[in-house]
Amino acid sequence: MKKKLLAVMLTAAMAVTTLAGCGSGAAESASSDSSSTAAADSGSSSSGGGKRVAVAMPTQSSERWINDGANMKTQLEEKGYTVDLQYAEDDVQAQVSQIENMIAAGADCLVIASIDSDALVNVEAQAKEAGIPIIAYDRLLMNTDAVSYYATFDNKGVGTKIGEYIVQHCGATKDDPKTIELFMGSPDDNNAHMLYAGLMEQIQPLLDDGSLICKSGQTDFESNNTLRWDQQTAMKRCEDILTRYYADEDLDICACAYDGLSYGCMSALEGAGYTEANWPLITGQDAELMATKHIISGKQTMSIYKDTRLLASKCVTMVQAVLEGATPEINDTEQYDNGKIVVPSYLCEPVAVDKDNYKEVIIGGGYYTEEQLAN
Fold it and tell me: Which of 327, 339, 315 is nearest to 111 (CA)?
């Protein structure tokens, strides 16, 4: 009966994935990733015992997710695991279908960086029923008891470091207030809420005493979030804010929660006629290659460096421990309540980078080379 059910699930899941691929291209990406995985199977070492690890990533439109997927795949294959790496190109239903396929194909462990975690509750329940452990990667899986562990950066710490940087470098005082607008992350991503909380703890006192002024009044997360962390959405919102509130006064600070959002704000600022003479302080997150180049040129003030090699390594050790029946290294058992359980987590430390320390941190750490940053 179980074999018959599995066959039915596999047939249905393959059909759904084919349909989803016609609209988004996600299936084509998944197919190419799976093919490269199959080619690597024969060369795997024996330490992974031939077990299959399925990795569901959100999109290849962001440099950091490409790096995350590549780092994860490489490290897992070095340990002898078969890796099924798939990207859903920010298509929620495509990711659901991909994970259904992964379950039907006999995954021994699932690693999921979700697009919209609430949409994955049912498929996560299917994985639990099939006895497949789930590790949440970077983004917490909400409202499920099927997740075993969570590997991420200290997301509230990211917001704290952005806020600290603003407070320390913007020069705002009661006698010389500065204007600020917030461009936060996606409302369906728990990381965005935690980042916002960390940021506001730092800048709220300056908003309260008038040292910082948000002329749009959009300081609550409901009004300053950016669905799917989308660059174009941030650009359009920034254009609207500049037109409505800053026709006669400069915007001094763009508090952006992600490098992609900073790119959108830069485009809006350039369109509004901002130049080096009145260019605002602009924050970001991920220290993407383009963002780091912007930091060097002065277009972006700072970013949060998150070494995806380290995060991938921590997640791989979690996978290995789970598949070997051991307990992985954990350093947080309190913060990450997903609405069903508090998920045991490992938090990697983020680092603020700007023009003063990028050489030491980023080039010195081997993340980018001087040649990459020069081109």
Answer: 315
